[in-house]
Structures are given as C-alpha cells and as structure tokens.
C-alpha cells in the first residue's frame, strides 16, 4: 500500500505565543512546528505501515525551510519526502494550495492520501477536501478512527452529535483529527538517518495538469483586504472584597448587563 | 466568468434528521441584511430527503425563495451527493453570495463545492459586510463595489483578516454558529418554492455509510451555551465541581473547564476550553480558579462578559476579565447561586 501524507510547517501558537508590548503577535519569536493534525495523520500512516507494510511519502508545500518538518517526518518513520517549492507559489490561498498539491500528487502512485483536518495558523480545514476534489477521489473528513479492509478504508467520520462509520474505496483521501492517535517520538537512529535521507524537490515544472493562472497569489480567488494582529481586550475592573460583598458585586454587574 | 450574471444571496440550509440546524436560520438573518445592501433577495437552498415540510420555517425566518433539492440519495449527509446537489444549484442559478454554516458538515461541503465551481471560500467568518475592494481606492487598480467582505480570525484567534473574492463568483463563506442573529419569526411569511433535481448517480467519489452512531448527549456542547461556568486547577479537585454545576444550573448555563482539569482527569475533554479544546463565545464566562494561560484565553476571550474569580490577584486571567474578583470561590459561588435562585423565583 502506498500512502501520501500532506504536512505543513506552522508557527507554534501553543505554549510559544509571544506578544509585542502593544499586544500584537510577535511571529519572529515563535517556533515552527509540524501542524498537530498533520502529525496525527502521519502517525496514522505509520501505524498502517507497521501493520501492513505500507510505503509512506510525506509532502509539503512551502519555503525551503519547510524541509525541517520533512526531516522530522522521516525521523518518525516516513520513507520518502517531497518539498514543493517555487517562488510563483507564494501567497496561495486554499484553492491555489490544493491545486498545487494535487498537481504534485499526480506524479505519485497512491492508495491513500492523509491530511490533517486543519492547520493551526489558518484553521480553514479546506485544503484536504479540495485536494480530493481536484483528484476526483472520495474524501472522508474529520476522521477519528481508521481501518483498512482490502481495497477499502473503514473510518469513523465525526460530527457534532454523532459519527458515521463509512466505507470508501481506495484511492481516497482522509482528513485526520488530532484525536485519531498520539503521535510517536522520533528515534535517535531515525534522526541520524533522516538527516542523510534525500528530499525530493518539486518546482513549477513538476506540477501536472495545472495552469500558471491557478497558482500562487495570482491564482487565488480570495484576496486579503486587511489583516491585523488582534488588539487584545484590556483588563476590566478588579475588586478585593469579602465574600458577601463579592456576591453583591457580581449580581450588580449581571443586572447592569441584563443577564438577569 | 461574467460576474454580473451572478445575483442574490443564498444560504445553504443544513438539516440533520430533517431538522433545520440553528445556524441556517442565523445565516438567513444575516443574508437579509446583505440582500438589503445589494437590493436583492434571499434564497434558501434546502437539500435532503423528504424535507419539503421544512420550507415554511425558512420563509418565516427570512427566505424569499427556497430551492428544494429533494432526493432519497440525500437522506444522511454524505460529501458527494451533497456537493453535487449544491454545486448544481450554483451552476444553474448563479448566486452572487453563498453562505454555509461552519459546522462539521459545512466545513466539508464548503471546500468541496468551492473547488468544484472554482471559486474562493473564506472559512469560519465572524463578520460579513458589503463594501469596496480594495477598501481604499488605489491608483492603477480597479476598485470594485458591492463586494462581500468576510472577516475571520486566524492564528488561534490572535489575528483577524478581512477577505474578499473580487474576481470569482459566487463569493462563498462559512460562518461560525452563534455569531449571526436570526430574525424574529414572521408567522405568515411565504416563500416561492423552486423544485430542482440535478439527478444523483453513484460515481467513484461516493462513499457508503455503514452505520450512524448518535452520541448520547448528556454532555452538552459547551459551544452552544449562553453562560459557562468554567473551572480550573484552582477548583481543587473533581469533588468540588458540584459548586460550579449548581451555579450553572441556577443561571441556565453549562460547566466547562481548563486544560489542567482535563489533564488531571477531573473532567472529560469535551468540556475543555482553549487552544487545544473548544473556542467558546458565551454571553457570560465565569472563570473560576483559572489562572488564564494564553492558550486558555484564546478559547474564551470572545465571550461578551468575562467574570474571573481567583485567589491570586496577579493571575493573568484578570488581564482579560471584565470583572475580576479576588477571593475564595468556594465561599462566593454557593452564596451567588442561592441569591440567583431567589432572584429567579421573585421574577417568576
């Protein structure tokens, strides 16, 4: 079985969120990590590899420094890695990103494509499903459990108040929830091997069935009109009263705001 | 693509088990505002099996027209027949704007449809306006009017961006539940019903549902709660959460918690607020014994009113709280609960 896992390098908003004195986000001070949902997707692929002997290829689109997450994925146990990078891919929205990744994936053989549900920087959850559409294969979004049965994937597809147990014929794409599993750590041997492992680089000319007009900023239907680091709400009132007076204070505020 | 052919504000009406999801009514309310600015009307797009009975309600909540796609293939939500249905409606009727709820269904259907009809999609919007793009006229660049400006948070709520889709139609957005307001029900409202069926033939993109497993919901979704009483490590132990539960019951709210509480095994992960839990925006958020780590704050700072109770007057939660009370929750909360109960009894 051949599995492709799409991963993304994202700034770590967990634990490492740094702010400037004016309350805006200090991106330069934040670490770059493998997106958590993608890591769960990679772990799912590696477990299938352990179980069935799959070949796992990781692919990422980004600047050359995104190689770091490919090295990490190799150290965890991925077999091959591909960096899709080209100046003309910059500024891509989800539509252009999914078009690019689909164009890259058309070079490869696969039974299963796994993406994370969403990345912690954009939070859109769009790229995975859109890749499946460009490749005309079925998609199972929000996968919380995954099994293989012959040529089929059996998965639990999560919804708010239920889940569906669904069956899809491979090749297909699933988007993984972080709940799917607990990703493994890199092994020291894996880390050494990963640094020596070859990373294949794809550029514009490697993308199959893709128009220039559909790539990068130019190929993105959505355009940013305005972006700003959110100015956080400042502190309100603080009181230090005895319990009874504290209760009175809370009741007064709840009335003032028409909550009660 | 001739952009001028695309007219009207459309709302995808999510229904599950033939019940309309609340977010669809909220979107109809917002669609009415947008349609007024654009001097156009509101169309609800209802997909399902045997769902004709739901059209009246859509009229009552603001739909001028309802496009009804009723087919047995649409019984339970599946990505492919629904994508085909909504994409076919878009291709046939050419809407200017399509709004979809940012639910576990909408966040699957939206991306698929946008890829199929080749347009942009802005996810999880919290604000929608009609305006110009670019916002300010720029020399040498055409400024387009009457564009949908879609505002959304990113970076776990640390940044906000306003996005337009100036050259493709429809302009598509998913919108978070609970953000927009539905209109007051107009009991005798009528909508024009347009039946449409593009035909549903199984193809390679179809999947099969083997089983539908409904989760027994004794755990309510904290994202739906108007009032949350949220506990942190400072609550002291699982045995003390009854104090929070009693307050929640008295105010018609729910109990949630911080990551520390989940990590300690005091409460299940469904109830966790924050970066790795849920993002909530209730009317009132009581932060009880929660220190207010940035990851927690990212999940609750959109609450309208934040009331923090903590023994430590330097706790960071006080930096985001509207009302901070330095004190012992175990003394304050029971008294507050009692007072609220007697107040409610008086009002009744």
Set down the secondary structure blueprint.
The complex is a heterodimer of chains A (260) and B (348).
Chain A: E1 2-6, E2 9-11, E3 32-34, H1 36-52, E4 55-61, H2 67-76, E5 80-84, H3 94-105, E6 112-116, H4 127-135, E7 139-149, E8 152-158, E9 162-169, E10 172-176, H5 188-196, E11 200-202, E12 223-229, E13 237-239, H6 243-256
Helix pairs in contact in A: 2-5, 3-4
Chain B: E1 9-13, E2 15-16, E3 19-20, H1 22-38, E4 42-48, H2 55-60, E5 65-70, H3 79-93, E6 97-101, H4 106-117, E7 121-125, E8 127-133, E9 144-154, E10 159-164, E11 171-175, E12 192-195, E13 208-214, E14 227-231, H5 241-251, E15 254-257, H6 259-263, E16 284-288, H7 294-297, E17 305-310, H8 317-320, E18 323-326, H9 329-347
Parallel strand pairs in B: 1-4, 1-6, 4-5, 5-12, 6-11, 7-11, 14-15, 14-16, 16-17, 17-18
Antiparallel strand pairs in B: 2-3, 8-9, 9-10
What does this structure look like?
The complex is a heterodimer of chains A (260) and B (348). Helices cover 27% and strands 28% of the residues of chain A. Chain A is α/β, with parallel strands linked by helices and 260 residues long. In chain A, strands 9-8-7-10-6-1-4-5-11 form a nine-stranded mixed beta sheet, sandwiched between helices. Chain A starts with a strand and ends with a helix. The model of chain A has no long low-confidence stretch (mean pLDDT 90). Chain B has helices at 22-38, 55-60, 79-93, 106-117, 241-251, 259-263, 294-297, 317-320, 329-347, and strands at residues 9-13, 15-16, 19-20, 42-48, 65-70, 97-101, 121-125, 127-133, 144-154, 159-164, 171-175, 192-195, 208-214, 227-231, 254-257, 284-288, 305-310, 323-326. A seven-stranded parallel beta sheet of chain B has the order 7-11-6-1-4-5-12, with helices on both faces. Chain B has a five-stranded parallel beta sheet with strand order 15-14-16-17-18. Chain B has a three-stranded antiparallel beta sheet with strand order 8-9-10. In chain B, helix 5 (241-251) links the parallel strand 14 and strand 15 (254-257). Chain B starts with 8 loop residues before the first strand and ends with a helix. Strand 12 of chain A pairs antiparallel with strand 10 of chain B, so a sheet runs across the interface.
């Amino acid at each position: 079985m051949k599995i492709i896992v799409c991963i993304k390098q994202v700034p770590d908003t967990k634990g490492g969120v740094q702010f400037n004195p004016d309350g805006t986000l200090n991106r330069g001070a934040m670490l770059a990590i493998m997106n958590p949902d993608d890591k769960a997707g990679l772990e799912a692929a590696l477990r299938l590899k352990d179980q069935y002997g799959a070949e796992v290829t990781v692919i990422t689109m980004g600047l050359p420094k995104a190689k770091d997450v490919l090295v990490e994925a190799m150290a965890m146990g991925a077999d091959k890695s591909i960096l899709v990078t080209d100046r003309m891919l910059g500024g891509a929205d989800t539509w252009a990103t999914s078009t690019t990744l689909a164009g890259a994936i058309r070079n490869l053989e696969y039974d299963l494509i796994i993406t994370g549900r969403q990345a912690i920087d954009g939070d859109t959850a769009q790229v995975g499903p859109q890749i499946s559409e460009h490749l005309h294969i079925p998609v199972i979004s929000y996968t919380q459990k995954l099994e293989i049965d012959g040529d089929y994937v059996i998965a639990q597809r999560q919804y708010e108040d239920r889940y569906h147990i669904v069956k899809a014929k491979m090749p297909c794409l699933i988007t993984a929830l972080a709940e799917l599993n607990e990703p493994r750590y890199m092994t020291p041997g894996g880390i050494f091997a990963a640094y020596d492992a070859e990373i294949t680089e794809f550029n514009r000319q490697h993308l199959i069935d893709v128009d220039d007009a559909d790539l990068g900023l130019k190929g993105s239907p959505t355009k940013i009109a305005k972006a700003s680091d959110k100015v956080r709400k400042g502190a309100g009132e603080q009181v230090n009263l005895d319990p009874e007076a504290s209760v009175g204070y809370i009741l007064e505020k709840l009335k003032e705001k028409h909550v009660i | 693509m001739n952009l001028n052919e695309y007219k009207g504000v459309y709302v995808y009406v999510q229904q599950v088990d033939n019940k309309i999801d609340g977010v669809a009514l909220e979107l109809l309310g917002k669609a009415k505002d947008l349609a007024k600015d654009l001097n156009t009307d509101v169309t609800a797009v209802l997909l399902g099996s045997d769902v004709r009975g739901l059209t009246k309600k859509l009229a009552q909540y603001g739909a001028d027209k309802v496009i009804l796609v009723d087919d047995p293939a649409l019984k339970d939500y599946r990505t492919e027949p629904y994508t085909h249905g909504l994409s076919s409606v878009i291709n046939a009727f050419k809407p200017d704007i399509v709004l979809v709820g940012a639910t576990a269904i909408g966040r699957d259907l939206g991306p698929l449809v946008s890829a199929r009809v080749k347009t942009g999609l802005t996810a999880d919007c919290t604000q929608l306006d009609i305006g110009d793009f670019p916002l300010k006229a720029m020399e040498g660049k055409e400024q387009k009017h009457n564009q949908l400006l879609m505002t959304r948070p990113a970076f776990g709520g640390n940044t906000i961006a306003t996005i337009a889709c100036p050259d493709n139609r429809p302009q598509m957005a998913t919108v978070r539940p609970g953000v927009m307001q539905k209109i007051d029900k107009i009991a005798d409202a009528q909508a024009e019903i347009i039946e449409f069926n593009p035909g549903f033939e199984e193809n390679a993109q179809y999947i099969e549902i083997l089983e539908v497993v409904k989760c027994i919901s004794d755990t309510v979704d904290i994202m739906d709660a108007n009032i949350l009483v949220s506990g942190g490590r400072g609550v002291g132990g699982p045995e003390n959460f009854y104090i929070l539960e009693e307050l929640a019951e008295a105010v018609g709210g729910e109990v949630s918690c911080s990551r520390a509480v989940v990590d300690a095994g005091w409460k299940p992960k469904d109830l966790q607020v924050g970066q790795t839990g849920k993002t909530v925006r209730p009317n009132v958020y009581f932060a009880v014994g929660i220190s207010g780590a940035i990851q927690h704050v990212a999940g609750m700072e959109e609450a309208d009113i934040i009331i923090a109770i903590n023994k430590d007057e330097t706790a960071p939660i006080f930096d985001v709280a509207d009302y901070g009370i330095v004190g012992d929750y175990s003394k304050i909360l029971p008294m507050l609960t009692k007072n609220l109960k007697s107040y409610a009894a008086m009002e009744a």
